[in-house]
Structure formats: structure tokens, C-alpha cells
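User: Okay, second chain of the day. Same drill as before: sequence in, C-alpha cells out.
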Amino acid sequence: MTRTRVLISRRTVIAGALAAPLAAPLAGCATAPAGGGDFAAVEARLGGRLGVFAHDLETGRSFARRADERFAMCSTFKWALAGLILRARDEAALSLDDPAPYGCDDLVSYSPVTEPALGEGRAMTIGEVCNAAVTLSDNTAANLLLARIGGPQGFTGRLRTLGDDVTRLDRWETALNENLPGDPRDTTTPRAMTALLQRFIAGDALNDLSRKQLADWMIAAKTGGARLRAGLPPGWVVGDKTGTSGNGANNDVAFALPHGEDDRAPILIASYINAPDADSAAANAAHADVARLVVEQFIR
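Assistant: Same drill. C-alpha cells below.
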């Protein structure tokens, strides 16, 4: 049995926790003070704000820093978008093999898969578009998927049916990356995003086949090698989705399974940064530091 299979089949590891409101600590969690701990030192070195919620589904322990403050999601919403598409597939509303037609007028900036495919005259399926959105953060792909579920409002509404009363998507790519100070649009909190990941990856939001597909897409993601993945030990199975703006937002959401523990439930991490004066290298390094701290706390 592979670690990925354990990850997506151990549905009982979160029994009881899912009933807790997303705005409150997950049931049974020993949460560090929101303003203390070593996360504060990482934030001080970086400048700006660092929001973290890390939850170990094996032990129920969690650690937090600004876990209930809002941060711009940027492209971190794309893993959840793919999850909602898979949920629609589970409900027989669509197939991953369905065509996803689009034209030149649909293209937006940073579309490393959909733009070349259009230029080559190559048609794409919904499954291929999901893969592009999650693994390479293709913006046109995300918009095509949003259109399938009623746009940003449809995305938010579907999250509400899953118990997420916090996360909201208001705009399409690429406007959703604006990250204006104090703007609640297109935001989430680290705690809410971790709970949402828990529902999709280890809970009952998806059937077994779709959970495995979402996990596989996230494991194959190529954009986060310098962020949380960089701070996790070699050999761990990691899936993540990054998000970045041009004015200080630098985010990563991940699940991780320790090497050599095939029957272990995953560790979930949502790490959000808003640091307009920090460069991308410093922000990436801060995520790696967050991951190292999480490992120190959870793996004794």
C-alpha cells in the first residue's frame, strides 16, 4: 500500500473534527498561541505578516500564527477549484474526458499550457485543464474551470455547502491577485484553508478515486519547490499549491507524509505571507522555515 493510497483512503482520521466551525480551532487540537512561538521569529526576519495553520491528522496536534487573519489566496484557490470539479464528476455532472473548448479571447497572462495548446490547435479535456491549473498554475485553465461551476460566486457557494464560511472568491484570473490592503475579496484564512484541504484530501468531500486524483495532481505540482517543500525532509510525499501576487502575497498550501511511515495520516500546512517589502527569495525561504518548524514540532 503506497503512502498516497493511505492518504486518500483513511477517511476516519478526521472523525469529529469536521463538525467544528472553521472559525474555531479544530476539535482536539493543542494550538500554540497565535502571537507566539518560532513562527513569530520567521515573520520578524521577513517583515510583513505571516499566517500559518499546521495540523497533524495523525495526532490531532496543531500550531498557529495569525491563523484567523485574512490573506489574499492568489493561485492557492486552484487546488480547491480542481477539487470542486472532481466533486462535480462524482455527482455525474461532468466527465474529466469532456472537451474544454476555448479561444484567443479567453487567454490571460501566465498560461504555460493552454496558450501553447491553442497555438498548436490541440484540444484539451477538462482533466487536462485541471492538471494545468494545479501543476503549473495556468491562469486560463483556472478561468475555464471556474466557468464550469458558475464563476467565482459558484466557487464560493460550493465551499459554503462544504462548511467553509470563510473562504471567498470574488474575481477571475488575473484580477483576483490584486491584494489591496484590507480588501476582503478573494481571501481566506490559514485555518480555513487547512480545514478545506482536510475535507478534500482526507475527508468525504470526494470519493476514493477523486481523492487520489486530487492528491496526484498536487504531488505533481511544479511551482512550490522553493517553498514548503524545501523545508520538508527528503523522501517525504508532498503535494502543494502555491499562490503569488506582484505586491507581497506569497503563499503555499500543502499536505505531507513522512518517509517510511506508510500507515500514517498526513500533516497539513497552510502558509500565507503578505510582505510587500520582501523579495520572492526571502518569502520562499520563510515558507521553508515554516515547514522545518512544523517538522520539529510534529516529528519527535
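The radius of gyration is 18 Å.

User: Thanks, on to the next one.
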